[in-house]
Amino acid sequence: MFWRYRAIARQPRQVDLVNDNIRANRVLLIHDGKQEEMSTREAQQRADDMGQDLVLVQANAQPPVAKIMDWGKAKFEAQKRQKEQRKNQKIVQVKEVRMSPVIDSGDFETRKKAAIKFLEKGNKVKLNLRFRGRMITHQDIGREVLERMANELDDIAKVEQRAKMDGRQMFLVLAPKKG
Known about the structure:
Order of helices and strands: HEEHEEHEHEHEE
Subunit structure: Monomer.
Distance between the termini: 55 Å
Strand order of the largest sheet: 2-1-4-3
Structural class: alpha/beta
Number of helices: 5
Family: Belongs to the IF-3 family.
Number of strands: 8
Function: IF-3 binds to the 30S ribosomal subunit and shifts the equilibrium between 70S ribosomes and their 50S and 30S subunits in favor of the free subunits, thus enhancing the availability of 30S subunits on which protein synthesis initiation begins.
Strand content: 25-35%
Organism: Fructobacillus papyriferae
Shape: rod-shaped
Radius of gyration: 30 Å
Keywords: Cytoplasm, Initiation factor, Protein biosynthesis
């Protein structure tokens, strides 16, 4: 148990390159639309006089580029933007619809309705066709079934991956059309 705490303690913490954490001797200060090269101490003094923070925006540049800004406010705004992006992000799932090469028309319609439901929700659909026994010798029949399903769903879906064999299975991936 003790070794775990030591391992956690050894992990380096990310230090924000702000104010006293800036190790460069000279910086290129950008403030009020002007660029000026000066010592870090002078730049820090200017930031302190204004009641703001000196923030290193490009540490790898020669000399490093710094700005005078309210670091707490900038960090809060960045976190807010990230949270908004995560909220607007849609996670696309791949739903699977299983079929057989000798599928009947009623079962075909049932599978088609399931695929339509998944596509309307914005998910991708993987049409999976499993060959059993001697059916594997008639892969062309299986390919026709998958192509027929893709053609019937053509108005709401586009084929993302053509019919492909994988062992004793053949699959085709459909993605919903935009708009």
